[in-house]
Amino acid sequence: MKALRIVLWAAVAIVASALGWMTYQMTASKDQIAAGPFGVPFELVSQTGQPISEKAFTGKPTALFFGFTHCPEVCPTTLFELNGWLEKVDPEGTKLQAYFISVDPERDTPEVLGQYVSNVSKRITGISGQPDKVMEMIKGFRVYAKKIPLDEKKPDGDYTMDHTASVFLLDSEGKFTGTIAYGENPDTAVKKLENLLKT
């Protein structure tokens, strides 16, 4: 009986230690997000074919959306809505900037992305690049993106992408301040962008 109690207390101690470590890691991660620029350094290509890095996300408050050109609903809807919110909050287009980063660089070349984005907005800039570099950037920005085959029997055939659908908001120093969720109330989304201008 005494041996059983010792084993149980040892198990409790191990679980408590594990929970403590997990809490520490989560807190440290949040502190890291708040302390410095969001994401990781990267070198990709804008829709005009020009090099672009994480430095583009500083100097002005920034809205980031991750998606792809073959997206049936979420991406075109979000781009259209984001463009409208930007025009409402910053009519002159001088205070806020926005980027659309492809999660499907295999199909979304800078040229393809440029045509897609420019059909919806002149305020939003597309970003793509070499697939491996794009995926490193996506992972570093804590964005979920996964290729989903349209036919499970043909894993190398046509596919779609499952991905994070929120708009990320960064202040003028590139620090994370919040998100606009897909389907967010328009008035709430506009208010978040207005608040972003004050950062």
List keywords for this structure.
199 residues; alpha+beta; seven-stranded mixed beta sheet; 9 strands; globular; copper; Thioredoxin_domain; SCO1/SenC; SCO family protein; Thioredoxin-like_sf
Structure description:
By secondary structure, the protein is of the alpha+beta class. The strands form two sheets. It has a seven-stranded mixed beta sheet, sandwiched between helices. Strands 6-7 form a two-stranded antiparallel ribbon. Helix 2 packs across helix 5. The longest helix has 34 residues.
Task: Offer a concise description of the structure.
With 199 residues, this protein is an alpha+beta fold. It contains five helices and nine strands; from the N terminus they run αβββαβαβαββββα. Belongs to the SCO1/2 family.
